[in-house]
Amino acid sequence: MSKILSTILLTSSIMIVTSNTALAIGGPSGTNSYKAAGQIGAIYMNPYKVAPLTAIISNGGYSLTDVEVVVNAKTKNGVDIKYKVSNNEARQHGGIPIWGLYPDYINEVIVKYKRNGKAIKETYKIYAPPVYAKGPGVDQKNVFPKAKVIKTDKKFRDSLYLINHLMRAPLSNAAQAVWNNPVGGAMEWDLEAYVWIIDSNGDIRWYLKTDEIRDPDNIYKKGNMMGFFQTKDGALLWGMGQRYMKYDLMGREIFNRRLPLDYIDFSHHIEETSKGNYLLRVASADYKRSDGKNVRTVRDVIVELDPNGKVVDEWKTFEILDPYRSTNILVLDQGAVCLNVDASKAGTTASKEELEDPNMPWGDVTGVGAGRNWAHINSVNYDPNDDSIILSVRHQSAVIKIGRDKKIKWILSAFDGWEDKFKPYLLQPIDKNGKKIFCENSKCPGYENEEGGFDFTWTQHTAYLIPSMSKKGISYVSVFDNGDTRGMHQPAFSTQKYSRAVVYKIDENKRTVEQVWEYGKQRGFDWYSPITSVSQYFPNTQSMFIYSATAGLGKFLLNQGETMPILNEIDYKSGKELVEIRFEGMGASIGYRALPINLNKAFE
Predict the structure, then answer these.
(1) 200-to-203, 214, 294, 339 alpha-carbon distances in Å
(2) Predicted pLDDT at 25
């Protein structure tokens, strides 16, 4: 009885102490909160762990409305980051989201807001740490390549650009697994990603801490982060190996999902369609070939998913196109096949005997047939005018439109090597007067002229519909024409190669194609990107955005220089260069894509 009484008394005394004394950190705080940095709440740096140049000024328990933010430029020539924050965005983040801090710098941040209806303006001093990203430790001068601004027209003063690069070779703990049962696929394509945003002055204002998301030791969390796309709500959508994901610009995870089980190996491209669905370039997890063999395929399947991740449709291109057409594959420069760069093979091509070798391995090898890299689709773009998709099929040097019914609508390609059943879909080149242009041996009259003439695209990237110019039956399509295999051959000297951003007008009823715009040919080998890159028309600026992402790689393969990607904004009407930014100190990284970022969509 005395033990019971002692326990009761002790418990009572503990309860009294707990309710009447201030406890050290780790216990209940009572009515206290974290110390306010200003007139509202505390500051949380990198609140979602993946975006270190962001912060949140907590609302401190107040109701905040009418929020405006300015992150002041750190130099006279720098760029102020200015944006308004909707009331719901302030609620979403529990305060004022701060975006665009300079790394390793004490930033001056001005915020305006109403606190419980009272207008307040404050200035904060916020330090953000230096940038960090995993690297190889050798062949690297910087964390990210340095942006050198050559020119910026005043109308692009407030522009922001997301840059997506990858390591040129796997880090020591990556690329250690391959698919089995069945074999094939491209799991071993596992490169560290660099993802950052610069302003028009070339300063870093945001980056993605990829090691919080990517884990090379887990086969379902490894792969190349690629295909970054800004959705209608301002968030970022991208994919990585066996996953696709969406995060807002503050780094908040909206979703991070595994691919549906029938598909593997996302890379290159994902986009949100006007229907709100997602198109992803993937591969088949298990496909039975006509010879009875089961394989995993490589970069040749498109899957459409609804916003909840449910499969809506698929396009298996090895059942729609000819996976054994080797005409273009036989003239590919084996030194740079997408991001597989091998200087020892620069200028060499594969032989027909090699492609037809029954012992050729399955998987990420340049070859023919389902189970090898015969297509290398690097973009898919939705056309709402007729509910179809436009594909860039790099290893066929072809841009192809396919309907919801899985039937081909047209093929933009040189005529060589296509079977008879595909020939009716080949677009006929015409000049501006509608006169037919007759091309022989993959060469068209005038294609070698410095300006003008017609040419097909060669080992191209990013075939995108231009919605503001197009209508049903008439499609304007922009393409980055890389230029390897131009004319279906390798030139006598690799320095003769060049890349272009080009726009075609396609009459789908007449099945004709007119080249209406081009840029890049005049810049020659210095601007040539044998792989990767992007071009896209933006109606709000009436400019063609271009990222020649591997400019200089041709020189690098010849041991004559370094890779130096070039970002341009070109006035569509005049062809004038409005923006040029070059990236130096690439080291062990290689450029993939870039895209303009709209900050207002993210916060308003």
Answers:
(1) 7, 29, 50, 27
(2) 57
- Scan for tokens 């066929």, then name that residue: 396
Q: pLDDT of 472-514, one tens digit each?
A: 999 999 999 999 999 999 999 999 999 999 999 999 999 999 9
Tokens 């070698």: give the residue.
Answer: 448
| Mean pLDDT within 203-228 | 97
Q: Which residues of 407-423 are buried (b: 16+ CB within 10 A; e: fewer)?
A: ebbbbbbbbebbeeebe
Checking if the pLDDT of 42 tops 80, the result is yes
Asked whether 332 and 484 are in contact (CB, 8 A), the reply is yes
The conformational region for residue 348 under phi > 0 = left, psi -120 to 50 = alpha, else beta, is beta
Cα 381 to Cα 332: distance, rounded to the nearest angstrom: 25
In 364-521 the beta strands, taken as DSSP E runs, fall at: 377-383, 388-393, 398-403, 408-412, 428-430, 461-465, 474-481, 500-507, 512-519
Closest CA to 127 of 147, 158, 98: 98
Query: Catalytic: which of 93, 165, 269, 461?
Result: 461
Kindly tell me if the per-residue pLDDT of 538 is higher than 90: yes
Distances (CA, A) of 207 to 67, 83, 101, 128: 24, 18, 10, 12
**565-568, long-range: CB < 8 A, 24+ apart:** 565/145, 565/529, 565/591, 566/527, 567/161, 567/163, 567/594, 568/519, 568/544
Amino acid at 574: S
Compute the distance between CA of residue 398 and CA of residue 320 in angstroms, rounded to an integer. 14
% of the chain at pLDDT higher than 70: 94
Q: Is 94 helix (H, G, I), strand (E, B) or coil?
A: coil
Amino acid (1-letter code) at residue 291: D
Mapped onto helix, strand or coil, the DSSP state of residue 511 is: coil
Angle among Cα 16, 21, 26 to the nearest 5 degrees reads: 110
Q: Between 27 and 185, whose confidence is greater?
A: 185
> For the residues of 119-140, what is the DSSP string, one character each?
EEEEEEEEEEPPP-----SSS-
Lookup: tokens for 556: 């690098």
Angle value at C-alpha 369, between 190 and 379, nearest 5 degrees: 50
Mean pLDDT of the chain: 92
Decide if 593 contacts 228 (C-beta within 8 A). Answer: yes
pTM listed for this prediction: 0.94
**In this structure, are residues 314 and 301 in contact, taking their beta carbons and an 8 Å threshold?**
yes
Phi–psi pair at 311, nearest 5 degrees: -65, 130
Q: Is 461 a catalytic residue?
A: yes
Tokens 């406890």 locate to 23
Residue-level length of the chain: 604
